[in-house]
Amino acid sequence: MSSPADPRSLLNGQNIAFLEDVYEQYQEDPNSVPTEWQQYFSSLSSMESPMATSTSSGSSLDAAMATKQGSVSRLISTYRAMGHKLAKIDPINEMEAQDASELALEYHGLSAADLDTVFDTGPLRAPDRLPLRDIVAILKANYCGSIGYEYGHMASAQQRRWLRTRLEQPVGHDPFDAKQKKHILNRLTAAEGMERYLHTKYVGQKRFSLEGGESLIPMLDHIIHQGGAEGVKEVVIGMAHRGRLNVLVNILGKAPRTLFSEFEGKHDINELAASGDVKYHQGFSSDIQTSGGPVHLSLAFNPSHLEIVSPVVVGSVRARQQRRDDHEGNTVLPISIHGDAAFAGQGVVMETFQMSECRGYRTGGTVHIVVNNQIGFTTSHPKDARSTPYCTEIAKMVGAPIFHVNGDDPEAVIFATQIALDFRMKFHKDVVIDLVCYRRHGHNESDEPSVTQPVMYKNIKALDTTRRLYAQKLIDAGVITADDEKRAIEGYRESMVAGERVVPEFVEVQQGDHTVDWTPYFNIPWDQKTDTSFNAKRLDFLAARILDIPEGFQLHARTKKIMQDRVKMRNGELALDWGMAENLAYATLLDENFAVRISGQDSGRGTFFHRHATLHNTQNKEVHVPLRNIKDKQPDFLVINSLLSEEAVLAFEYGYACSDPKTMVIWEAQFGDFANGAQVVIDQFISSGESKWGRLSGLTMFLPHGYEGQGPEHSSARLERYLQLCAQHNMQVCYPSTPAQMFHMIRRQMVRPYRKPLIVMTPKSLLRHKLSTSTMEELHSGQFQNVIPEIDKLSDDKVHRVVFCTGKVYFDLLEQRRADKIDDIAIVRVEQLYPFPRNEVITELKRYPNANEVVWCQEEPKNQGAWYQIMHHFRACVEDRHTVLYAGREASASPAAGYLAVHREQQTRLVHAALAPIDEQDTYRVEALV
């Protein structure tokens, strides 16, 4: 930025836009502007302004006039920042008036006496000079009408200037022609007509009506058609219940007769969904013809957990963008529709906003629409629902512009929508439209809201509908006639009666290069044999590739030692560890054209310093990712050190996995119990999504698990919770005990045509355990074993007890048995706990004809871990001669002991209980009840 010798030489009306930008930069950071400007701004008196200008003749203003001009400039800036406080955005006048004293003339040293004085208008979209009276009128028209704009919080001066240019319109400006106005009314007629038809035909049934917020329908219609004209090919929508049925029928083109069947309980059985779900949770997809070609619409399935669908949507969008090689977000658009109380109250909203600009999760911006009925989900007053004047304050954290718009002014709604969409497409950032409306009925149609909100609902009942108000406006303006209005209402009702589609732009779904065919993944037996071996020479080549470090790349000493050890592992000089096996598994998948995506807190290096999928140069900020360099034109490998979020990130990855069966999608918890913060995602999507909605997902969860005396917080991944959720072959739960098992389990997840969630209890101390190693041969020629038999050479006939266990405790048992030289107890590992491998367990029991004791040993307390969830499987596997015993910690309210000495004592006792003779009393072993 150049600077004149005297900044005052630039003080004239032609330069005011430039001066305003320099002053904004000075306010944000004084050192960002040249010294001359710093000195000038700092010398201004409290009543003086940097915008003080000269007269049109160029002569210097006197001090009084300069002060007045500065006051006018500040008034303009204040209206831009605070005009929303006086905006007429509430159709029912329920919002409490905000303190807007800073918008008064007197606040800026002006008065009514100055209204006829002519001032420079600066960057306002208006004549260069106007009387103050006209300036104020323009400001009120632009900033205090049916739209309240909040954009002063945005850090980017470029984005603020762009918004000002778009939203500031001359007084009396009409952005819509007669054809557009008729189309808006047509969409409102559809929105209202559907709700009224359902209200009379299905009295008392829940539908979560959109009445009061009907402007949502023309808003979505505009986004889809305008987006299609600008190159958008797919739109993914997430929303809760309110208005969902209306969106399904009037936006996505679902046939009304199908919806009516659902109301009548006669809907077609979804063969892919075992249990099904209520109609206002259902998703849908369709294609809509626009001027830019067909746009594919997807409405995401979602449960009643309100905002949790938002990160699922952006995850799905990211996968679709990846498939289209769209790294800007030009072709796939996410739309999240929120409720006001949920938007303000649900923490996952913040987490999702926080992801929006993170490299591993950005989608080029989400259009957020808040259907703000001002009463929350039941009967909440705003003072009970939030601590902020608006429900949208959280969006300011990422500098998203916010448009509060009166839902009873459909033209203002579309005007705000157009600016919001254009902003998103230009700057690829999130944007928020706060559709301020009301709810004509209760939370559901059987609720009576006037019990708790009598005054509000008395006013609402007296209101004309949005459609009626707008129709009358068009009648008064001569755009339509009263007969036109009547015919439109009757025509829509006739379509509903006939059950016909009411979206004329609906077209059959177009199959193309970016369409995913999921049919090969359905109805695949879980125990179908899958070859996960890999060519030995090719595996050696891949090992060489991931160990190839660029010349001059300086590794940290510890990392360098790990990479040197991996070279020895490749050469057979060292046993293979977990980190090497895991990286090789990903390399083989990439080699077979499967993409890999891993996200979690510290996943690049690995929480336990084992993975090192990303390498860092100690001399600079250069990063080397070996798995991106295994061959030419390979699929994507992305490892993400995620933000410190579990719920939103896991939901994002679920959405991604549901949209891409060709990518190994992994979410890794830093410790297994971190997944506690994402329980909604696990319960409502991962474990039950297929059963409820027929949605497949190959998402993999890595949950570090193991009792090492580190206390109750980071010992248990809550294995019992996942097993409790298992039924109908809905997901897999594995606890691998060797690097080779990890290798084959990862490969199996993608190589076989079977897409179910995989829950993995991953190791901590086992990562470096001397006995938990493998060989390269076990990788290229082995398979994943659901059950690993006894590995020591025992006499089968001599064995009188078979101990079954899973995970880390196996090595404690093995070492103790060897130390005690016990040769009549076999130890068998169950590596897959669900679906439970009954046949393999029975096979192992038959190996030992004289064994009459079967012990299940676990580290976890008895009421946790696997025991209570697999007892019935053991009962089905054992014979009459077998006595089934439990060896493990006693039931506990806490996942693990907090004191190391207590932990060690418990571990010693449970190992002893598993191996000691049955007549030795021990509180850790009890006979299983039959």
UniProtKB/TrEMBL annotation:
InterPro entries given in the database record: 2-oxogl_dehyd_N, 2oxoglutarate_DH_E1, DH_E1, KGD_C_sf, ODO-1/KGD_C, THDP-binding, Transketolase-like_Pyr-bd
Residue stretches making up the Transketolase-like pyrimidine-binding domain: 576-769
Keywords: Glycolysis, Oxidoreductase, Thiamine pyrophosphate
GO cellular component: cytosol; oxoglutarate dehydrogenase complex
Catalysed conversion reaction: N(6)-[(R)-lipoyl]-L-lysyl-[protein] + 2-oxoglutarate + H(+) = N(6)-[(R)-S(8)-succinyldihydrolipoyl]-L-lysyl-[protein] + CO2
GO molecular function, one term: thiamine pyrophosphate binding
UniProt-listed Enzyme Commission number(s): 1.2.4.2
One Pfam family linked to the record: Transket_pyr
An individual GO BP term: glycolytic process
Cofactors named for this entry: thiamine diphosphate
Subunit description: Homodimer. Part of the 2-oxoglutarate dehydrogenase (OGDH) complex composed of E1 (2-oxoglutarate dehydrogenase), E2 (dihydrolipoamide succinyltransferase) and E3 (dihydrolipoamide dehydrogenase); the complex contains multiple copies of the three enzymatic components (E1, E2 and E3).
NCBIfam families with a match to the protein in the record: 2oxo_dh_E1, PRK09404.1, PRK12270.1
Protein role: E1 component of the 2-oxoglutarate dehydrogenase (OGDH) complex which catalyzes the decarboxylation of 2-oxoglutarate, the first step in the conversion of 2-oxoglutarate to succinyl-CoA and CO(2).
Family statement: Belongs to the alpha-ketoglutarate dehydrogenase family.
Protein name: 2-oxoglutarate dehydrogenase E1 component
